[in-house]
# Entry
Amino acid sequence: MGFSALPPRNTLADALRTIDLWSTRGDLAAIHDEPPYTELLAGTSPDVILQRDKVGLVDFYRSKGMQLMYMADLTDGLDRGQEAPQLRALGRSLAEPAVQQAVRTFLLAVSRILKPDYLGLAPETNLIRLSAPSIYASVKQTANDAAADLRAAGTSATLFVSVQVEAAWGKFNNAPFVGIDTDRADFPFMRMIGLSSYPYLAYVQPEDIPNDHYSRLQSSMSPLPMMVAEGGWPSASVGNQPGQVMSSPALQARCVTRHAALLDSVGARGWTQLEFADIDPAAFPQPAPPSLVLFVTLGYVDAQFAAKPALAQWDTLYARPRQ
# Structure
């Protein structure tokens, strides 16, 4: 169980306080990053970037006895229909062989220097395929080539991609359940299924989430371990019109309990959430993406670090014995 270092505001003080508060209630640290395309394509060594930006953080996590999950976010995390923000700013594309090679070289360095226990080579692959088939083709090529590189280098990490669970259930395009068989076939290197689940985008309350929310994704293929790579339920409503998200701190706390039962039902290996603290929208780089408002109150403490009811639920679960 754990979180990432994402702070409410992009300041050193907020980052340190965020990590300090959740590090006593987590044993799995998540780093979920867009590859540093700008520097990589300008010729900066991946080793230099990782030593500067990540080694100190990972050393801290390791000193706390934590495992590490690293996810390379190859596209736009807030709009899966677009290329990654840095690539758009450069006028470049993941379709370019040189860009793909830069990602592959970077991931080899991540494996060698950071030694993650779990290494994600692409997030929400089914949502990318649904939103942008042409970008998906580049993601598929890059991830599979990177997996081949990593295996040849003898990586010790469990390789995986994540799938967007509500998209697999057809909730984003009014379709029947489609599952993830295509993702399993397109990314055969997977040794674990990463789960991205934001059920409030599809269900009114946590109790509406079906009991086979995760288990049905195994389908007829050989089962793989599962781990939540990102997700959550907000503590505040977004808009007040039909079809928009209505929530509260109490509803968020109920989702923690419901989610734990769903994960127990599949013997999930881990549960990470990117936000421990809420995001301060005013501090986010402007203009902020329109979808940001859907994700700013996923934290278990608010942007001023005051605890919400969900934190007590999380702490109770974290105290359970590990298997």
About this structure: Strands lie at 2-6, 28-33, 67-72, 118-120, 158-164, 193-197, 226-231, 270-275. The longest strand covers residues 158-164.
